[in-house]
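Thread: Modeling a multi-component assembly for a lab meeting

Hi all, long-time lurker, first post. My supervisor asked me to bring a structural picture of a complex we are working on to next week's group meeting, and I have zero experience with this. I have the sequence lines for every component (600 residues in total). Could someone generate the structure of the whole assembly? Inputs are pasted exactly as I received them:
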Amino acid sequence: MTQPRPSAIAFLGLGLVGGSIVRALRAGSTESPPDPALRIKAWSPGGRGPHAAAAQRLIDEAAASPEEAIDGADLVVLAAPPIETIALVDRLGGDLRSALGSATVVTDVCSTKAAVVRAAERARIRFVGGHPMAGRETAGFDASSADLFLDRPWIVVRGQGSSDEDTAMVRWLATACGARPLELDATTHDSAVAAISHLPLIASAALVEAVARGDDSDWRLQRSLAASGWEGMTRLARGDARMGAGIAATNAEALAGMLGRYRDVIEDWILALEAAERDAAALERRLEAARARLVDSPLD
Amino acid sequence: MTQPRPSAIAFLGLGLVGGSIVRALRAGSTESPPDPALRIKAWSPGGRGPHAAAAQRLIDEAAASPEEAIDGADLVVLAAPPIETIALVDRLGGDLRSALGSATVVTDVCSTKAAVVRAAERARIRFVGGHPMAGRETAGFDASSADLFLDRPWIVVRGQGSSDEDTAMVRWLATACGARPLELDATTHDSAVAAISHLPLIASAALVEAVARGDDSDWRLQRSLAASGWEGMTRLARGDARMGAGIAATNAEALAGMLGRYRDVIEDWILALEAAERDAAALERRLEAARARLVDSPLD
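Re: Modeling a multi-component assembly
Sure thing. I ran the full set together rather than chain by chain. Output:
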C-alpha cells in the first residue's frame, strides 16, 4: 500500500487544534518535511481563525462557506467542539454532500468518538475519527502552535465503512504533526478519556460547586486563603464551559459510569475519616497506595 | 503595648516550613530587618534540617534534644506535621515541662488548628496556633526558601489562655517572615482549610483510586493518554502520604463534612448527565456558573 498523502486539505473550524495542525503541516518535521504543493483552505462560522491564518500565509484561502472550503479537498478536518462537529457531520451527509468528493476522507479532532462515529455512519461519509491528546488552557487560533502535538498520542478510530487507505490518510496527518498515531475502537477511547480527561474536568467543577455553595462571607475568606493546591485543582473549571458541556454531553454514559466510581470512592473516604482517630495509619497507607499507583507505574 | 520580640527562638522540627521561617528571619524584610542578636536553636528527630541549618550558619545550634533546644527560648516553634505536633504539645505539658520557661510562648505551623489548640489546653502551655498558608510540592529543609511566606496569609489562632502579648509574639513572627497575620478562631480556620486545602487533597487521591482501580491494562492505556489535565488534578496525590494522613486525621470532622457536600455534587452531576442528550445547554450553564463563581469573585 502506498502512503496516501492529501494534495488539498479543508478545515471546518480553525481554533487552537486546527490552527496547530496547520502550523505543524507548514513547519514540517524530520519524518515529514513540509509539502509546498499542499493546498489548505479553511472555513469557520466566525471566520477569525481562517482570516488570521490566510494573513500569515499559513493557508491558501479563507473560504466564505463550508462548500467552498471542502470543494476539491482529499481530506476534510472537522476542527470544532463535539456538538458542532456532530452538526457538521450531519451536514456533510445532507446539504454539503454534493460539495464533498466521493473519495474524500473526513476526520475530526474532538475528544469523544462513539457519538461522532455513529453520526458519520448515519451520514454515510468516509470517516475516520481522530483525537490528538494534547491541549492547553487557552483556546482559539491565536494560541495555536506547531509543536502542540509533538510526541503526543493521536488516537485514530475507524468508522464502520473506513478502508485501510482512509485510515492511513489520518495516520499520515497525525505523523505529519509529530504525533504518534494509535488505533483504538471508539468505546475503548471513550472510556479511557472519560477516566483521565472528562472525569477530572467534572471533578474540578464539582469542587468549586461544593465549596462556593457556602454563603458569600465563607467563600470570600476561603478564597483569600487558597493556595497552589486549590488553584491547581480548579484550573480545569476555569476552562471553556461550552467545550466542557459538549464533551460531557457527547460522552455522557462513560462519564457517568466513571463519576459513579468516583462518588463511591469519596463515600468510602467519608467512612474512613469517621474511623480516623482510631486509625490514622490506615489513612496513610491508603494515600501511599494511591501515590504508588500514580508514581511507580511500570510506564515510568 | 510594646511589640514583643523574642531574643531566642527554638524550632522543634526543621523541614520546609521551619527552614523557610529561619531563612526569612535571617534575611529580614523592609518591615522587619534581621536582628543580629537573635539566637536560634533547632532540634528534629533525625537532625538533618538542624545540622544543615547550622552548617549554613542560619541557626546558632543544632540541639541534641528538645530540652536543649527550648532551654532559654522566648518562643518555641513546633514545625512538624500535625500528629507529631500534637505529640510535641503533649510532651511540653509532660516530660519537657521543666525545660520550658514559664513565660515562653509556643506556636505551631500545621494546617489544622482545633485539635492542636485542644492539646495545648490539656498541656496547660502558653500556646498561640499558627498556620502560614503557603507550601510547595517538595518537602524538607533543602526545599526551604526565605520568600515562601511573602504576602501570604498566616493564620493566628489564640488558645484559651493566650494573652494579647502571646498573640503579638506570633503576629510578629508572621510579619517578620513577610506574611500577613490574620486572626481566626480554630473552628473557622479548620472549616476553611477543609474546603480549600484538605478537600482538594482527598479529591485528588480519590481520582487516582477511582481510575486506577480498573485492571492493569486499562490503567496502562489511560496513563499513556493522560495529558496536562490529569497531571494537574493528581499533583496533590503525589505529595507526602504521612503529612496528608495527619492532616486528614486531625481535621476529620470538618473534612468529612466537606466530602459529604462534594459527594452530593458528584451525585447531582450523574443525574444531570443522564438528562444530557435532552439538555446539553443545561450542562453548559452549570459549568459556566462554576467558572463565574471562581473567576468573577468580588476579590478579583
